[in-house]
Amino acid sequence: MIDLKRIFFYLPPKIQQKIFSINNNTKSFIADEFLFSDIGKNYGLDLKDKKNILKKILENLKKVESATSLNVHLTLLKYLFLIPKASQGTIVECGTYKGSTAITLSIAANIMEKKLIIYDSFEGLPNGENNIKRKYPHLKLTGYYKKGMYCGTLDLVKKNINNYGFIDNVTFIKGYFNNSLKKHDDNIDFLFLDVDLTSSTYTCIKYLWPYLNNDRYCMSDDACDLSVVQCWFDSKWWKDNLKSKPPGYVGSGCGLNISSSYASLGYAYKGKDENYNNKYPWLVDQKTKK
Ligand SMILES: C[S@@+](CC[C@H](N)C(=O)[O-])C[C@H]1O[C@@H](n2cnc3c(N)ncnc32)[C@H](O)[C@@H]1O
Predict the structure, then answer these.
(1) Where would I find the H helices in 81-225?
(2) 265 CB near ligand 1 (under 6 Å)
(3) Strand order through the sheet with 90-94
(4) What is the number of the ligand 1 atom nearest to the C-alpha of 65?
């Protein structure tokens, strides 16, 4: 039987907002989890607070053109609120377009009393990587990017964050990543990349991954694009540039399981061996072989 609740989240944001205001029990399983689990409890959030956040996100998605979905926004919050309260790192977004996801990140930054740094050219993509044909095998989708795509000006992004989020904790850094990221020197607790291009992804990794704290996530919205995802598995590049092994990418090709068919969101996890605490029955200990 078709799950009517899930259809809700394939509707345009405008209609979602309408239905939500009539019956705010209409949600996806991601929204259910966000509202009714312990997500945000460590930051003092209760059900009422989370309903308000959800309403703010729906308002954001209705008013600001976005390249990300509601489920992506809620999943970013889920991973953000995993960060221990005492942790000192910043939140960083690379690739903001008109600032929609940044609005949600600014809501989190306000609750978590963290700084949010937004890096973008504010002139759209630097080039189209004409030599790279994008391939989304899970969707049989292909095509090319073009210079200037996804342009949101700095003024517009500031206005949107001011109107729908919280601008006080936000720092905006304008420029192409190969210049702007060189000066980055803050420890990072949460990194969100939505940069489309393979070259931009490598640049973000090169300059920001070393600042990502241990046991933290770099989430990205380019999970379906294999030419972007391969950056996270490129042993030679990681060895040459960061003298480490590639972390891999969870959600390669079809994204995290936050939607019934595919999702654009995935992540690389920066974890040392001691962060892997869960044992599975079919894996044995190397020493004891048990
Ligand atoms: C898909 S859009 C981001 C969507 C956005 N996160 C949202 O919430 O709608 C990609 C963004 O990456 C930026 N971008 C990509 N590569 C860049 C680079 N090398 N330097 C600066 N900005 C870049 C573009 O300007 C654009 O704003």
Answers:
(1) 100-112, 154-164, 177-180, 198-208
(2) no
(3) 170-174, 116-120, 90-94, 188-193, 212-220, 266-270
(4) 9
Ligand 1 pocket test: pick from 194, 198, 222, 231 the residue with the most ligand atoms within 8 Å of its Cβ: 194
Whole-number Å distance between alpha carbons of 169 and 180: 19
Q: Which CATH number fits domain 38-270: 3.40.50.150, 1.20.210.10, 1.10.3810.10, 3.30.420.280?
A: 3.40.50.150
The one-digit pLDDT tens for each residue of the chain (290 residues) are: 455 556 666 677 667 666 655 554 445 789 999 999 999 999 999 999 999 999 999 999 999 999 999 999 999 999 999 999 999 999 999 999 999 999 999 999 999 999 999 999 999 999 989 899 999 999 999 999 999 999 999 999 999 999 999 999 999 999 999 999 999 999 999 999 999 999 999 999 999 999 999 999 999 999 999 999 999 999 999 999 999 999 999 999 999 999 888 999 999 999 988 888 887 778 887 778 77
User: What is the whole-number distance in angstroms between the Cα of residue 218 and the centre of ligand 1?
Assistant: 16
